[in-house]
What does this fold into?
Amino acid sequence: MPRVRRRTRAEPAGWIPDAVWPTRRSPWVTVYLAVCVVLAALNLRTLFSSAAAILPELTDALGLTAGQVTLLSWIPVLLVGLLSPLGAWLLPRLGTWPTLLAALVLVSLGLGLRGLDVAGLGLAPLWAGTVLCGAGVAVGNVTLPVVVKMDFPQRMGLMSGVYTMVICLSAALAAAMTVPVYEATAHEWHRTLGFWAYVAAVALLLVGPALWAVRGRVGRVPSRWVVRPPRRDEVSESDGGPERAVVEAPAPAEPTPSPWTSRTAWHLTALMACQAVSSFAVFAWMAPILRDRGLDASAAGVLVFVCIAAQMLGSLIVPVLAARRPSQSGLTVVCALLTGLGFVLVIVGPLGLSAAWALMLGLGQGGLTAVALTMIGLRSADAAMAGRVSAMMQFLGYGLGSFGTLAVGQLYAATGSYAPSAVLFGASGLAAAGFGWLAGRDRIVHVREGRP
It folds into this structure.
């Protein structure tokens, strides 16, 4: 194969730039990396659904006050938003896969801490583990869209759908399996919550070799240098050897634009906030809402599983449809309206049709979350901008959306009923439809913004 005549700074042997990396790797490496994405996504929602499934039992065992119960549901969601900039800070310093592994380490340690029952420490391990795990989820949320944008550029819609579906599966498994694990462990809550640390640890061990699999790709490069594929005039046909990348000092250029000054990025962020209001409320409050309406723990867990299983279906189909068209506005509006109406009916609709309401909510929520995450890549010109847009969306989106989870608890504490929350979710669904229409238009952040 030809070797590049490097007319500038030489790069270490074997480096492959991100721009050409997906076309140079083995198909088996591609399959393995896709499996790693699935394994990482499988651990990004167990934090929320596992505690929610046994929340009444946890409250009784620990003597939690109403305020502490609300904080236990709200703090993880708030942290996912507030700590999203940590992912954006780590990505250019560690690289995509080391950052994803760091996220799994934090999740594993956090879930393990939540399962500790040490005399004299009281609730400290529970709260510390929640914070640590929330940080890991925040970093993982920011990193996965960048991994998809960088490593699967030709399959962005499919891979976005796959990892969003698996995130939903993560929540579904935690909702469905936590109660059986609780019963199998003789009603020991700490062992029940600690069970999910083993799942995360296994995923961490299996994803670890990804660092070896991507060893030939360009790592961190000083900011004054740029890496690019070779041009035709830089290739010598007479000299055999492995293909190289060109690393050179860039010409003076304007500073990289920030997504914080882009209308498109703000529309995406508002959409993320609206969908987060209902998304995390499903994990934190759907089971307590159904139990408050008269269902037992097992029946409520089954309906939460049905809802999240429907989310998996919606999250797999919608991104594929979204990636095939320049505008995702109509698709986003439909998903938003299904989400809002479905949650309203779960709270105040006929109880006998709860399975239908759960199915409606799940299809809408899964599609809405997936299309919002897919548009991170579709609305970004490159992986670097995708990382910045992802951090902005999830910092503000999940940060603001977390107050929906808090509001449900506060409204229930004030009124003794979950019915007022139906107004909240109806309004968030309508707002998501409006911002989804704007975010879904054919635009690129700071490249093709359209008319004001």
